[in-house]
Amino acid sequence: MKPSNKRGRAGEINSRLDIIASHFSFSSPRMASEKEAALAATPSDSPTIFDKIINKEIPATIVYEDDKVLAFRDIAPQAPTHILLIPKVKDGLTGLSKAEERHTEILGHLLYAAKLVAKQEGLDDGFRVVINDGPNACQSVYHIHVHLLGGRQMNWPPG
Hints:
- 31% of the residues lie in helices and 16% in strands.
- The protein is built from 4 helices and 5 strands; from the N terminus they run αααβββαββ.
- A 5-stranded antiparallel sheet has the order 1-2-3-5-4, with helices on one face.
- Strand 2 and strand 3 form a beta hairpin.
- It is globular, with a radius of gyration of 16 Å.
- The protein starts with a helix and ends in a 9-residue tail after the last strand.
């Protein structure tokens, strides 16, 4: 890749981060850490940045889509492969702690879609799925989402 392309990619990532940051009520354009972002986020059933991605109002690198789930690359990856999977319809499911019996189908479908995406991404040696729930777990977007992480050796315990 030519150096100018690298700068273009970095500029694209910074632009995306600025767009995302503009949708939160932060005092600065970008928070210093995921922890600070989670603590600053307000749990709510209001539309989120993920709703804007679903509606194609802001860009995302989509890697999988079906009638219920959308999967796209995380703009601040924590592993060589870091993909977010979200339900297209939130239905009050802002976090796992808000799940009700009516959500069992979509929760199962999110995990099945994570398996399909992991295979598509070539994560044959293993992968991790994570659902952050609430500020102490560093949830910063209140629209349930599954993190699919892979492409490197994970450590235990996490966090």
